[in-house]
Amino acid sequence: MVFNWFRRQFAPESPEDEMPDVDESVSEVESTPKSDDSSAEADDPDTSGEAKPDYLNWAKAAFENIQQQQEAAAETPEATEPAEQPEPAEQPEEPTEQSATISEASEETHTDETEVLAEESSESSAEAEEAATPEPVMEPSEPEPPPIPEPEQTPQILSQGADAVNAEPVAEAVDFDEGFIWSAEVLAAQGRRPEDVSVEEITWLKKLRRGLGKTRQGLVNQIKAVVGQGPLNQDGVTEIETLLLQADVGVTATDRVLEALQTKLRAETLPPDEAIDYLKQLLREMLEEPYQKDYAPAITPERGTLNIWLMTGVNGAGKTTTIGKITHVAKQSGYNCLIAAADTFRAAAVEQVKVWGARSGVDVIANPGQNTDPAAVVYDAIAAAHSRESDLLLVDTAGRLQNKKNLMTELEKVRRIIDKKAPQAKVESLLVLDATLGQNGLRQAQVFSEAAQLTGVVLTKLDGTAKGGVALAVVQQLGLPIRFIGAGEGITDLRPFSSYEFVEALLSS
Ligand SMILES: Nc1nc2c(ncn2[C@@H]2O[C@H](COP(=O)(O)OP(=O)(O)OP(=O)(O)O)[C@@H](O)[C@H]2O)c(=O)[nH]1
Question: How far apart are CA 344 and CA 374, in angstroms?
């Protein structure tokens, strides 16, 4: 059995034995507390007036279960080593002997595709010439790292050694501490059973809570102090407004929260804890609003078809790191993955993604030349994904080009190739945003949303920032769902987004 992080459940290792992908929008919603007005009071354990379940006993049972899992794993000879490894250096590393190996499949891939590649490539060079005037808009001041000499110019499949990293740290130490009990309570409140909890979930929740510590700091206690005094007076409104704006919740979302809080507190007097519970419910509803429109509550790679996730975002937002982390999670969850190194604008980016591919044990399709056609890489990667029957192809893209027009043209072209070469694929176009930039990051989103038909956001660097509230601004201002959140530089520091867990980590005292 593997723990499927996208479905949040243990699943059989063989995809054939897995439960069919019925209506995901239904099954995923059921795993999180409902948030529509009519059902929230009844379903949310925090807001119902009923006695709370015995979370401590639940936590004890989960702890025992985890210990048993770990003992069983320790007895399994193939249990692998912890996956936490040093992060890639800022500067690209030399390709390892392993990462430079060209697998046999490489030749398979670009046999009959050469004409199309040539066609697309010539289009690309014409476009490159057309946009010859350097007009840096994305990050003009950062010098480009020196190009890395590459021996050949043909696309490669870089075999990273599929067994390099194929397990979470199974023997990860876990203590029955305050963080464990808090995490257990969060899982129990979502209807989970103690025997179905994995150690990685506990570890992640603890990490998320720690990561959001700076945003949370003072927020909960100060809000409690204000709301515990009955209807909000002007001073109270101003105080909460300031707190939310400081957490980078954004003006639109802050106004909505204040309006709802004022209405609620005018209607009834709530003790501080209940006021916080009401606030939690409000924030969850806001984060889940995209699910009421065009988006399913979660993205899960669909079996039996190719899923392509296009990763966009400015340099430094964390695209490459995120790709490494997602492939790790996906591989852990039993999916076959492949990476397309389509940020060909910066040679260092290709090297960096290779390092992450090696870490997660996922092959990388790359064209070693600098400034080669990213659409050609994507074309080759799709061919490789088809021939290997991969479940998930992650595409790294450039975050900076000579100018905004080039960036958009390139993204549009990559998108066209995907639509042409893999018309049946389930495509997600994810914008990677650095949470530490807060509202500033949102402005960059516009460029990408025009060119890449965005379907969701990955919020990175939530650890150590006081701007965690930006998640609400993202959803409110872009109208897009958050799909993953990153809270650290390690390979296990990113997970699919859960509004329930996020809000608990943000507002639990
Ligand atoms: N603290 C923290 N750092 C992160 C996180 N995600 C990424 N980083 C760091 O952010 C830096 C930039 O990440 P990259 O993945 O290289 O960003 P990128 O968007 O791919 O940038 P380019 O490759 O230059 O386009 C790296 O030092 C990462 O370790 C996170 O969740 N938390």
Answer: 6
Q: How far apart are CA 103 and CA 363, in angstroms?
A: 9
DSSP state of 102: B
Tokens of residue 317, six digits: 């937002």
Q: Which two tokens stand for residue 141?
A: 């001041």
Alpha-carbon separation of residue 194 from 71, 179, 201 (angstroms): 17, 16, 12
pLDDT greater than 90 at residue 427: yes
Q: Please state the three-class secondary structure of 419-458 as a single string.
A: HHHCCCCEEEEEEEEEHHHCHHHHHHHHHHHHHHCCCEEE
- Answer for the pair 361, 355: CB distance below 8 angstroms, yes or no: no
Q: Which residues contact 216 (CB under 8 A, 6 or more apart)?
A: 468, 505, 506, 507, 508
For 107-135, what is the mean pLDDT? 34
Measured CA to CA, the distance from residue 204 to residue 367 in angstroms comes to 35
Evaluate: CB of 313 within 6 angstroms of ligand 1: yes
How many angstroms separate the alpha carbon of residue 114 from the centre of ligand 1?
A: 34
Tokens (6 digits) for 38: 């009519």
Q: What is the pLDDT of residue 51?
A: 54
320 is in an annotated binding site: yes
Is the C-beta atom of 145 inside 6 A of ligand 1?
no
Classify residue 194 by its DSSP letter: G
Most confident residue range from 271-275, 284-288, 407-411: 284-288
Regarding the beta carbon of 496 and ligand 1, being less than 6 Å apart is answered no
Helix, strand, coil shares of the chain, percent, nearest 5, are: 50, 10, 40
DSSP 200-231: HHHHHHHHHHHHTHHHHTTHHHHHHHHHTTSS
> Could you tell me if the CB of 47 is within 6 A of ligand 1?
no
Task: Tell me the average pLDDT across 156-160.
Answer: 48
Q: What is the mean pLDDT of residues 89-111?
A: 33
- The pair of three-digit structure tokens given for residue 484, joined into one six-digit string: 């993953």
Q: Give the DSSP letter string of 446-492.
A: HHHHHHH---EEEEE--TT-S-TTHHHHHHHHH---EEEEE-SSSTT
Q: List the structure tokens of 13.
A: 């290792």
The tens digit of pLDDT for each residue in 191-206 reads: 899 988 888 899 999 9
Residue 55 in this model has a pLDDT that exceeds 70: yes
Domains of the chain: 105-130+147-167+295-507 (3.40.50.300)
What's the 27 CA to ligand 1 centre distance in angstroms?
A: 32
- Asked if residues 155 and 380 have their Cβ atoms less than 8 Å apart, the reply is yes
Residue 126 clears pLDDT 80, i.e. is over it: no
Q: ∠228-232-238 over CA atoms, to 5°?
A: 110
* pLDDT (average), residues 10-27: 48
Distance 324 CA to ligand 1 centre (A): 11
